[in-house]
Design goal:
Helix content: 40-55%
CATH class: Alpha Beta
CATH topology: Spore Coat Polysaccharide Biosynthesis Protein SpsA, Chain A
Largest sheet: 10 strands, mixed
CATH architecture: Alpha-Beta Complex
Number of domains: 1
Distance between the termini: 46 Å
Number of helices: 10
Order of helices and strands: EHEHEHEEHEEHHHEEHHEH
CATH superfamily: Spore Coat Polysaccharide Biosynthesis Protein SpsA, Chain A
Structural class: alpha/beta
Length: about 280
């Protein structure tokens, strides 16, 4: 059986969403253990939010959601009230990881009951796979396409900021960027980019890469890590691993998020190459 570590980074998270994430994670771990896939799992939750109010809330949720799993899943909390950013906090969470696999997980993800069992089965059967991406639905149940081709500036504008009528006009363009033809019911190997909301890494691969590049405070750190992973290992989209993701685009979260999005986009394109259309 496999050992698993999980990193989860919070910042003033929506309490019901975080609770559902923890409950679904616990249940998925218990299912994987019962199926003979998982021996033990440890969650490191890094709180980027203010202390002690956030810590108290998270400690209460862990007591309610994680402790009932018994010895299958354990949890600890890190954070001193400083917002380190998404990638840097995840790096601290995984630095102490010694498990076979490490899951990078968002606090707004709802795992299907058999998600981890299916994911561990795939990683056990495909030792050359360095990281796995799941099939994703949004909160309304519609399919999300979180594997992507290398982005152009126009792709990012369309997906994140364009009005609905303009997206409709360039629907085929968006479909190509979002790899909608590939993210169906078959395993797809080596998508160029996968989303950071659920990335199941072989721990040895993640340690070889050094984790996320912390110069991306928020946004594009998963794009960067995907490209670097492809240089040393294989990436797999596995549709039998199912999650629901409630995340939204930067344009819906206010001016600070828009600024961080453009700042990280600039870092990404300067490092990996500009494509405009």
């Amino acid at each position: 059986m496999t050992t698993l570590s999980i990193g989860l980074v919070c910042y003033a998270s929506d309490e019901p969403a975080l609770k559902q994430t923890l409950v679904s994670l616990r249940d998925a771990c218990l299912r994987a253990h019962a199926d003979g896939r998982l021996s033990s799992a440890s969650l490191v939750l890094f709180d980027n939010g203010p202390v002690p109010s956030e810590h108290n809330k998270i400690e209460s949720l862990i007591s309610d959601c994680i402790v009932p799993s018994g010895a299958v899943l354990t949890a600890s909390i890190l954070g001193d009230g400083t917002n380190l950013g998404f990638g840097a906090a995840h790096n601290l969470a995984f630095k102490q990881a010694s498990a076979d696999l490490h899951l990078i997980l968002n606090p707004d993800v709802d795992l299907a009951g058999d998600a981890l069992s299916e994911a561990l089965r795939f990683m056990q059967d495909h030792l050359g796979c360095g990281v796995l991406a799941p099939a994703v639905a949004n909160s309304s149940g519609s399919r999300e396409y979180l594997c992507k081709r290398y982005p152009t500036v126009f792709d990012l504008f369309l997906r994140g900021f364009a009005p609905a009528w303009l997206k409709q006009k360039f629907e085929k363009h968006l479909a190509a960027y979002e790899m909608r033809d590939m993210q169906q019911e078959e395993i797809y190997w080596n998508p160029p980019i996968i989303s950071g909301c659920f990335m199941l890494f072989r721990t040895s691969v993640l340690k070889e890469l050094g984790g996320f590049d912390s110069s991306y405070f928020l946004y594009f750190e998963d794009f960067d890590l995907s490209l670097r992973t492809a240089a040393v290992s294989r990436i797999a989209y596995v549709p039998t691993v199912k999650i629901m993701h409630a995340g939204g685009h930067a344009s819906r979260k206010g001016w600070r998020h828009i600024f961080l999005f453009f700042r990280s986009a600039l870092i990404f394109f300067n490092r990996h190459g500009w494509k405009w259309y």
